């Protein structure tokens, strides 16, 4: 008899400092697909569901995929959106509960809703109410998960991504699926424990390419081959979600049926949590001011490829507005030539530009409309429309390869020497097609300024001569004290002095 497995994806990283709510429409714009349609659209790419489907095929599961729901990181999830997606998952579980062997979920682990701090924990609680405590539940989480005690308690198996940029979603999906298969077959009885220290964030945001945590990720992987240790996950946390249990965590999924595994799991988790704590003062990123970044661009020689400037603080991928203007204003002031800047998320400006024609000269107020205190207010620019598009593209890089993506109505406005990508829908830059689809060849530019913290590196480091990172003062600024934390447990590093682990 094949194992019958219910699968679903419900992914949101909620920035509680951002105004408004993430409603169902925001999911519809990105991904809100059910059953077979979801599988057809999202499989064979860098997605968790691809990994689940790989295991289903190999192990001969009867896999029942309910829904894939993803919205670009943003404000808290509305009750209606949460109830809609969680409702579909729970209704399917209820309808099939007498014939179900396991549940496999792809979640983020930093979802905050307008009615509760722990979206994933709430989903798991509702699911357990339906299916009871015994059926094995496995899930994948983002490396930037905030993991609450409730989540670790209610899920048996948790596997987080181990790469940032996140290029191992499918691989982790396979790992979670295989662990679930072993549990359903009665070979293991998994459980997950959690360790943490009083930290708001890993100051390197979970960088796995460089910095002090690189050896810890290697350790985590090595421990997974020990007897009875199934998965060791280092979660950097998400410091834009102001909830009680925010911050880095270590999770170890172990087999309760293996002698000594629980003690060993606790030892591993605490030692790795100590490692994160001790690395708290070593920064891998050198955050330049926007003026210093532009000064560097002026003297940069682009023979080896463009200078890439990452606007870390205005990363739409962490829920920042994506319309901060400080970096663009500095680029214009510096008079940079053969440069590009992307994206400027400004639906009003995008609509105005898309109602014109290529070649038109226009004057408009660009960006800075959401919260000028974070990253600068609107700037008046005059430029030429170079391209108009519906914003759709298919990615071809390590993260977005084969996946559909849309910025919505999009235009390229050339202001002096800078091609500005003005878009309607939110999205961070993580694929070359996000330029090329709109007629911008990033390889040929001298300066490529883009809004992203780290994900851009997967596609842009190979073409860059040099990468620098700046802090434009936007909502996701690395200067934590600029954000008004209220809910996080105190005392906590780095907000409070003399915090003890
Ligand atoms: Zn992440």
From TrEMBL:
Regions that span the bilayer: none
User: InterPro entries of this UniProt entry?
Assistant: MlrC, MlrC_C, MlrC_N
Q: Does the keyword Zinc apply?
A: no
> Which Pfam families does the record cross-reference, listed alphabetically?
DUF1485, MlrC_C
Q: Which residues form a coiled coil?
A: none
Q: Look up the domain of life of the source.
A: Bacteria
Q: Which residues form the Microcystin LR degradation protein MlrC N-terminal domain?
A: 4-297
Query: What's this chain's function?
Result: Involved in peptidolytic degradation of cyclic heptapeptide hepatotoxin microcystin (MC).
Which keywords has UniProt assigned to this entry?
A: Hydrolase, Metal-binding, Metalloprotease, Protease
State the organism named in the record. Sedimentitalea xiamensis
What positions does the domain Microcystin LR degradation protein MlrC C-terminal occupy?
309-485
State what protein this is by name: Microcystinase C
Identify which cofactors the protein needs according to its UniProt entry.
Zn(2+)
Provide the family line: Belongs to the peptidase M81 family.
Note describing how the cofactor binds: Binds 1 zinc ion per subunit.
